[in-house]
Amino acid sequence: QVQLVESGGGLVQAGGSLRLSCAASGSIFKINVMGWYRQAPGKQRELVATIRSDGSTNYAESVKGRFTISRDNAKNTAYLQMNSLNPEDTGVYYCNADLWTAAAGFANYWGQGTQVTVSS
C-alpha cells in the first residue's frame, strides 16, 4: 500500500521560509511525477509545483522565483523550499505522485496534507 507523508508545515511570519518534505513509501517501482498542491480556505485546490523523474520542473506563476521543488529519487522523497512567504501562501499543502506499483499499476496518489500559515 502506497503512502505519501508530508511534513514541515507550520506557522511563519511574512517574509519567512519553510521547507516541506513528502516521503513516498510502499512497493513502488517508479515515480514519474511528484508535485505539491495547496488549498486555501474557501478556494479550490491549485497546483504549486511539479517535478518529473528527469528533474524537469513546473511552477505556478504565483510562486515562481520564491519556491523551489526538488526530489531525491533514491529516497522517493520530494521537497518544496518556500522563501519570501506571504499571507496568500497560507493553506493546506498536499503532496501528489504519479507512480507505478505491482499491485495497482500506474496510479495517482495524494498525501494527507500539511498546514502552512503565514502571518502578516
Summarize the structure.
Helix content is 0%, strand content 62%. The chain has 120 residues and is an all-beta fold.
- Total beta-strand segments: 11
Unreliable spans: none
Estimate percent helicity: under 10%
Backbone structural class: mainly beta
In whole angstroms, how far apart are the ends? 40 Å
Major beta sheet summary: 7 strands, mixed
Q: Give the SSE order as H and E letters.
A: EEEEEEEEEEE
Chain-averaged pLDDT: 96
Q: So what's the oligomer here?
A: single chain
Strand percentage, roughly?
A: over 45%
Spatial shape: elongated
- Cα-atom radius of gyration: 14 Å
Instruction: Work out the helix count.
Output: 0
Explain how this protein is built:
It is a single chain. The protein has 120 residues and is an all-beta fold. The chain is 0% helix and 62% strand. It contains no helices and eleven strands. The chain has strands at 3-7, 10-13, 18-25, 28-39, 46-52, 57-59, 67-72, 77-82, 91-101, 105-110, 114-119. The strands form two sheets. Strands 2, 4, 5, 6, 9, 10 and 11 form a seven-stranded mixed beta sheet that branches. Strands 1-3-8-7 form a four-stranded antiparallel beta sheet, with no helix packed on it. The N and C termini lie far apart (40 Å). The model has no long low-confidence stretch (mean pLDDT 96).
